[in-house]
Amino acid sequence: MSANPEPTTHAVSAAEGAIARPARRAGRRHRPLTPFWRAVGAVAWKDLRAEMRSRELINSMVLFTFMTVMVFSLALELDKEARQTTVAGVLWVTIVFAGLIGLGRSLAAEKDRGSLDALLLTPIDRSALFFGKMIGNLLFVLVIALVLLALLTVLFNVTLLKPLLIVVMVLGTVGFTTAGTLLSSMSVHARAREAMLPIILMPVVLPVLISAVRASVAILEGLPRDDWFPWIQLLVVADAIFLAAGYGLFDYVVEE
Amino acid sequence: MSAAERTIEVRALTKTFGLNPVLRGLDLDVPRGEFLTLLGPNGSGKTTLLRILGALARPTSGTVRIGGWELPDEAEFVRAQLGVVSHLPLLYDTLTAEENLLFFARMYNLPREARRERVDTVLRRVGLARRARDVVATYSRGMQQRLAIARAILHDPAVLLLDEPYTGLDQDAAALLDELLREVAIGGRTVIMTTHDLRRGHALADRIAILSRGKIAFDAPCRDVNPDALPALYADTTGAATTR
Amino acid sequence: MTYSDSRTRLLRGLTIAAVVLFVIGLYLALFWVGPERQQGAAQRIFYVHLGSFLGSFIAFGAAVVAGIAYLRTRNPRWDTFGLANVEVGLGMAAITIVTGMTWARPIWNTWWTWDPRLTSVAIMWLAYAAYLMLRSGIEDPERRQRFAAVYGIIAFASVLFTIIIIRVRPDTIHPVVAGPTQADPTGSFEVAGRIRDTLFFNLFTFAVITVVLVWHRIRLENLIQHVMRRKLEVLSEL
Measured between alpha carbons, how far is C33 from C41 in angstroms, rounded to an integer? Predict the structure, then answer.
């Protein structure tokens, strides 16, 4: 954003310029641009409000989550010994696939209704729009993650509600939804966009996914700090990279 | 026309999509308070021009200045004084009219204490005050378009861009929109409207321009143009004599 | 479509140099350097393995530069440069993976194992394959270039991952040539003497090959676009 609120170019002749400037300034209403975090809040609030009313997304995501867990438990024949090691994998794979549903729809809906244009027409920093959408997506995915934790705890009798695991969960979902929000804003313009999002998103977030799974397994098995802490460090680094990429690149994705 | 009077100033504007030039050196001046109707066949670059004026698309070359701010570098400042109505309603189906407008009031940074009052004012203005708490999905096409106008004038913009606002409206709704647009245009707003409806475009505007192959091919005040001769003039200018 | 003679001569010279370097590099790796003490002849593939990895690293790095430059200048030449680098990088990474598998069969007694380093390189390869998929899925050329630039930058995270993962998981069975070796990976060896000389020569060779291939790919792309433009011109004249 330009730090200088003055118009920079005056391609008019000197005589004209002398009259033009004050006149133009008088004719312009001075209204400060929308502050960054206010815009972020407005966008996220709007998404939550709309979702609370229709429950379209969250319902399909929760239902999908239930089904995936069932498929996994049947396919892997999760007996008592297998649970400790595989449950983290089941957890994260389910989060990722349920998350893909939400990410795919969130921006596709804005684009198809034309409301994305309406958002882009407001005098906000485009990065604020990115973070607003990202926070909305993040909250949906976190809801799914919490449902899953409870579900797996009950169904497989493995205690998943550990503080450390929640930390890993938040770090992992932040990385996933940040990259996902940025890349879904590109995939909505592609042919066969439902297929495009997983194709371009998965390789980028696999490092996050691997780190999250490894950290979760180590924590669930009660291994010493050295076995899970490096993975958490890696998660933090990955989150920072994706957040920076989203902040810096979203503007270029949405402006034609 | 001196610089002071021009609200919109476009010079040598080009826009190319890949190898396909859509705008080829377009010049356009619109003085403050003028209602300009922009006619032209599909593909002549009307929508592209409006998207560039709205800072949604970046010009390939040329300069665009709106209210003294330069695009694309000062896009945020330009957007603050623009209101846009398109053929899509640009609203959220699952929110009520009031929620939609309150959301956009926040996005346009209207002061907190003034927001609700302003929303009520524009809702009354477009005749939707009684349906304010209904979800937009239950609205008819005409009502959605009225709400879209309410959204566009919410922050009292100096410039209105209307991209085919009549698309999909029935007779009654279109007549209502006519009235509304006339009302909205009064009060010093600069308006650019694109339409395929020659007669309506002529009746509403102060000035008519015809866009053909990425350039302004015809440009005259409405009072100099006979509405009955407009279809023939349009066909001559755009070379679409056989189709119109 | 004409290029200046001096540039064409330079490219031709570089191409010949790359071929000569490659032949010498192979000679050094296959004959000049003695067989490694424990692994014998199998170790000789390592020079191509590491050389091609360096090539892909250079190419993917250049794609990031191309992406940033494109977004700043919107000059389509940067897009061509980025595309050329990603394609060459993909080829180089494929050589890295195939030579690695060929080596692993006799040394580790398996073609593939889900070792962190192998996994991370596979992910890197997939990320850049997705770059090409994304390009082919976007029709508007301007948007395709913009998105490709953005994705070219983001995909580099997967290259960083191949480097970082070794620090996080030192228990890889993959030999570590540079940097601290915490565990004692299967199949490691000392880089010194003739092995070191051969390695450096091959690294240099692959850097040159990468540059030459990218340059040729850029020319090919320019030619394709030139032909397309001519086609449009001819069609519009009809």
Answer: 10
